[in-house]
Design a protein that fits this description.
The chain is an alpha+beta fold. It is built from 6 helices and 4 strands; from the N terminus they run αααααββαββ. It has a 4-stranded antiparallel β-sheet, covered by helices on one side. It is globular and about 50 Å long. The protein starts with a helix and ends with a strand. It binds protoporphyrin IX containing FE (HEM). Protoporphyrin IX containing FE (HEM) binds next to helix 5 and helix 6.
């Protein structure tokens, strides 16, 4: 994961739990907490911080990762407003993530670790995002989708019908826009 992701995690923990707790998580995981935004750091370091946050707060890991995705979305928006087109709907935006946004992100940051999304788009008010990544961060995807829905002021229901954590090859994130 890029340093920017660690910095966003630090911001979230400090904002929600305070600087003392962030310092405690760093001590517990042996992390120095110094991140260069464009540099790549081991995924395990991020996992260790999330697990330490879970142990400290009692909040389930999945809920923490989802909350982190939701927190990240407005920060991504602030940093890259050009990825958002005037008048776009939530569904139109989500359809650009794999072939436009993440493609641009990869050009800007070679070596970035991004997931693959395939889409099933058969009905106006529905969309299935099929998520695949060796990092199995489907809960982060759920949180990012939730953050995007808030941004677009859109209500939706999500059915995470099959999941890599249950041995599936990919996760199916089926959205119904309500
Ligand atoms: C709802 C929309 C989005 C979804 C569902 C999504 C999904 C994800 C997921 C799940 C990851 C974690 C890596 C993995 O799973 O292998 C990720 C990483 C990332 N995404 Fe997206 N993303 C979205 C929007 C965006 C936007 C708007 C940006 C930037 C403008 C962005 C830039 C990135 C970056 C920089 C990473 C980190 C890669 C790294 O640290 O190596 N994503 N995305």
């Amino acid at each position: 994961m890029k340093g920017i992701v660690f910095t966003m995690l630090a911001d979230m923990v400090i904002e929600k739990f305070g600087l003392d707790v962030w310092d405690e998580l760093l001590t517990k995981t042996g992390d120095d907490g110094i991140y260069v935004s464009t540099e790549t750091y081991p995924d395990e370091a991020l996992t260790a911080l999330v697990v330490a946050a879970h142990e400290k707060s009692g909040i389930p890991v999945n809920d923490l990762v989802r909350a982190f995705g939701e927190y990240m979305f407005p920060l991504f928006y602030k940093k890259n407003p050009s990825f958002f087109l005037e008048g776009q709907t939530l569904k139109e935006f989500l359809l650009t993530v794999d072939q436009v946004i993440h493609v641009e992100v990869r050009k800007l940051h070679p070596g970035v670790n991004l997931p693959e999304f395939n889409y099933v788009d058969e009905k106006d008010s529905e969309l299935t995002m099929i998520y695949a990544s060796p990092r199995k961060l489907c809960m982060l995807a759920e949180g990012l989708i939730s953050g995007a829905a808030k941004h677009f002021n859109t209500e939706y229901k999500l059915d995470h019908s099959s999941c890599m954590h249950d041995g599936a090859e990919s996760c199916e994130l089926h959205l119904t826009i309500t």
